[in-house]
């Protein structure tokens, strides 16, 4: 397994380089000039020229890339053109918030989606299956922002059970941190739970028809063991793929969810950086997201190998 | 257990697909004593496998319903018992081997664990004891280097080895009854002989009664003490292996015998039975073989009862014993 992971990480390096080239070109492809934004209202030509020199905007583009990539390798992603803070520091501040939100949302989605999928496949055609499908369809159809606002109105404003917004770092007060984050994570997780439920259901339906499930029953095993040990384990392979693909949706959803619950996360950072043409920050964020995706894929591949021993050959 | 009480007594078993007008398995009855091997023979779709699955209580969750009959196994009626009663019997007192060794083992679990879990479930033994039993069983089914095989996955084994694992799994709790549904059909011919040999020896060693479902008369000749010939959901002829092979009485059994090549040297033409099995939708009310039978006449419009000709040799044909019926052209000449 370790050798496999090492191999996967080495294979990922060219991908990371490609991402970095793409990320770097981004600033030259986007319309608008950040120097003009920084130079302010007066647009003094001397100031503009000095700024161009300072940010190496006069160098040939390949040189600019090499300088940027060299710095990035040393953990220097540049300085925010707007706040003058190092980009890495900004990301380091905001990323954990979004990771916490995304991980909690994913856990909620898995805890709801997979058992619901198993149950509705097992009880196919009964009222349980119908109810699960209707809830899943609603989960897919209801927009995040609407569900978020409704939950704030009900749980925070009317019942006063949970805070409507804010953030508490996990390291300072774990319990409070989870309390604050649980509602946004639920909102973000529902759509994903619905997708997971549908995929788990269809994978379980095909696995439940398989010969080895019949063998498991012929051994006199309890239905719980047949379902979880024999069927679910095999049905999870396609579900893991779906989880990996949904990770992108999760990050996109996080941007919106953070806005609704005013959470100081990655999403707000992205939106602010794009609107202000804060290229260094945009680049840093896209690079981090790209690497996160590669990491998720490596994790998924590792999960396949655990679930399906044939892939270890 | 007394002489008069067989290990398994199936009587009047009928199975129907929800909504169909005729049952798929119709009034099937047979008995089996401890240590005996019964072969149920017939072509695909005749209801052999359904009969086996019904006895195992594995028809739940399918559109098939047991419509009637009883199957007494050691004081329990398998057809009316609750799922929890059946679950405690399955894999313990009654075990089953399936046709497809390639797909019948769970691809994600180690074979040692797949054998041991049946032992742990029914015997409540520890993990180590289950593993020890799994190893013992792998050795009994003559898997070489059994110890190292325990931790392998099914895809690392050949088809014959996988079927040996299935047999090890089925016999792990010393069942009184082993049901084998076409256990050699999916295997190479040389491996088939090895597996049959193994099953016969293990059957003798453990004293387990066996029901072997097959369409292969060679397997029947090799294994059976008793034979039941099924056609289109009904038993058309049943008796001891000698009775069936030496003195077949049902026209369908005759057809089966004549369609089997012989190695005696004389070149004989193989006979095929004309026509096909009627589909469940237009199953005749009378004899289901009539449309393909050279002896058929007006009498065959009524369902023939399964009558005892002599000494347990039962036949469902209005024209039995066949000697009285006159020989139809092209039938007995090669038999």
UniProtKB/TrEMBL annotation, chain A:
Q: Which residues cross the membrane?
A: 9-30, 99-122, 134-157, 177-196, 235-261, 281-304
Q: Where in the cell is it found?
A: Cell membrane
Query: Which GO molecular function entries does the Swiss-Prot or TrEMBL record give?
Result: dipeptide transmembrane transporter activity
Can you name a GO cellular component term?
plasma membrane
Answer yes or no on keyword Lyase: no
What are the entry keywords?
Cell membrane, Membrane, Transmembrane, Transmembrane helix, Transport
Tell me what topology the record assigns in the membrane.
Multi-pass membrane protein
Asked if the record carries the keyword Transmembrane helix, the reply is yes
Q: Name one Pfam family in it.
A: BPD_transp_1
Superkingdom of this protein's organism:
Bacteria
Identify the residues that the record assigns to the ABC transmembrane type-1 domain, covering every copy.
95-304
As for family, the record states:
Belongs to the binding-protein-dependent transport system permease family.
PANTHER family on file: DIPEPTIDE TRANSPORT SYSTEM PERMEASE PROTEIN DPPB-RELATED
What is the name of the protein in this document? Answer: ABC transporter permease subunit
User: Which source organism does the UniProt entry give?
Assistant: Sulfitobacter sediminilitoris
Automatic annotation (TrEMBL), chain B:
Does the UniProt entry include the keyword Membrane?
yes
| Entry's Gene Ontology BP terms | peptide transport; transmembrane transport
Location comes to:
Cell inner membrane
What GO CC terms are in its UniProt record?
Answer: plasma membrane
Keywords from the named record: ATP-binding, Cell membrane, Membrane, Nucleotide-binding, Transport
MF-aspect GO terms: ATP binding; ATP hydrolysis activity
- UniProt xrefs under InterPro entries: AAA+_ATPase, ABC_Ni/Peptide_Import, ABC_transporter-like_ATP-bd, ABC_transporter-like_CS, Oligopep_ABC_C, P-loop_NTPase
| Coiled-coil parts of chain | none
Q: How does it sit in the membrane?
A: Peripheral membrane protein
* ABC transporter domain: residues covered: 8-257
Q: Which PROSITE patterns match?
A: ABC_TRANSPORTER_1, ABC_TRANSPORTER_2
Superkingdom field: Bacteria
Which family is it part of? Belongs to the ABC transporter superfamily.
Protein name per the record: ATP-binding cassette domain-containing protein
Q: Which species does the entry assign this protein to?
A: Sulfitobacter sediminilitoris
* Lineage, uppermost ranks: Bacteria, Pseudomonadati, Pseudomonadota, Alphaproteobacteria, Rhodobacterales
């Amino acid at each position: 397994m370790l050798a496999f992971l090492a191999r996967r990480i080495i294979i990922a390096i060219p991908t990371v380089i490609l991402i970095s080239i793409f990320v770097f070109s981004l600033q030259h492809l986007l319309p608008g000039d950040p120097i003009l934004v920084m130079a302010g209202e007066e647009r003094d030509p001397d100031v503009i020229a000095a700024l161009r020199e300072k940010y190496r905007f006069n160098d040939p583009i390949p040189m600019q890339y090499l300088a940027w990539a060299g710095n990035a390798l040393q953990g220097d992603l540049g300085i925010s053109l707007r706040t003058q803070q190092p980009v890495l520091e900004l990301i380091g501040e905001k990323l954990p918030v979004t990771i916490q939100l995304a991980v909690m949302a994913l856990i909620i989605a898995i805890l709801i989606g997979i058992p619901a999928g198993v149950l509705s496949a097992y009880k196919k055609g009964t009222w349980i299956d119908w109810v699960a499908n209707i809830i899943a369809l609603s989960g897919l159809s209801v927009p995040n922002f609407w569900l978020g606002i409704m939950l704030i109105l009900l749980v925070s404003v009317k019942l006063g059970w949970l805070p409507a917004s804010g953030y508490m770092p996990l390291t300072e007060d774990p319990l409070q941190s989870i309390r604050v984050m649980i509602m946004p994570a639920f909102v973000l997780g529902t759509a994903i739970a619905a997708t997971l439920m549908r995929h788990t259901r269809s994978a379980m339906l095909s696995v439940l028809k398989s010969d080895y499930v019949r063998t498991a029953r012929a051994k006199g095993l309890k239905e719980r063991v047949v379902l979880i040990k024999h069927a679910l384990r095999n049905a999870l392979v396609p579900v893991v793929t779906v989880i990996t693909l949904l990770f992108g949706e999760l990050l996109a959803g996080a941007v919106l969810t953070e806005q609704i619950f005013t959470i100081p996360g990655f999403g707000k950072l992205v939106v602010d950086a794009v609107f202000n043409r804060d290229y260094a920050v945009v680049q840093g964020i896209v690079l981090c997201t790209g690497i996160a995706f590669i990491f998720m894929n490596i994790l998924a591949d590792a999960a396949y190998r655990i679930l399906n021993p044939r892939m270890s050959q | 257990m007394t002489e008069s009480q067989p290990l398994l007594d199936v009587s009047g078993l009928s199975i129907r697909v929800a909504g169909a007008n005729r049952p798929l398995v119709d009034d099937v009855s047979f008995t089996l004593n401890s240590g005996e091997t019964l072969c149920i023979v017939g072509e695909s779709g005749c209801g052999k496998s359904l009969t086996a699955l019904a006895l195992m209580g594995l028809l739940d969750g399918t559109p098939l319903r047991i419509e009637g009959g009883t199957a007494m196994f050691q004081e329990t009626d398998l057809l009316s018992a609750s799922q929890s009663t059946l679950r405690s019997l399955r894999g313990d007192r009654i075990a089953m081997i399936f046709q497809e060794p390639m797909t019948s083992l769970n691809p994600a679990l180690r074979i040692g664990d797949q054998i041991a879990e049946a032992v742990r479930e029914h015997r409540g033994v520890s993990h180590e004891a289950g593993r020890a039993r799994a190893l013992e069983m792998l050795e009994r089914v003559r898997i070489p280097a059994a110890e190292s095989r325990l931790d392998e996955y099914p895809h690392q084994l050949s088809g014959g080895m996988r079927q040996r694992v299935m047999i090890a799994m089925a016999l792990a709790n010393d069942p009184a009854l082993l049901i084998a549904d076409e256990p050699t059909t999916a295997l190479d011919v040389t491996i088939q002989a090895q597996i049959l040999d193994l099953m016969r020896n293990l059957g003798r060693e453990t004293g387990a009664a066996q029901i072997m479902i097959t369409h292969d008369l060679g397997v029947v000749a090799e294994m059976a003490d008793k034979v039941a010939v099924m056609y289109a959901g009904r038993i058309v002829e049943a008796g001891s292996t000698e009775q069936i092979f030496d003195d077949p009485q049902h026209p369908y059994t005759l057809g089966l015998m004549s369609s089997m090549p012989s190695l005696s040297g004389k070149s004989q033409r193989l006979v095929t039975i004309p026509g096909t099995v009627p589909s469940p939708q237009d199953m005749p009310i009378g004899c289901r073989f009539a449309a393909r039978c050279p002896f058929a006449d007006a009498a065959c419009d009524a369902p023939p009862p399964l009558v005892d000709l002599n000494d347990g040799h039962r036949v469902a044909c209005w024209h039995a014993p066949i000697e009285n019926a006159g020989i139809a052209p092209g039938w007995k000449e090669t038999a």
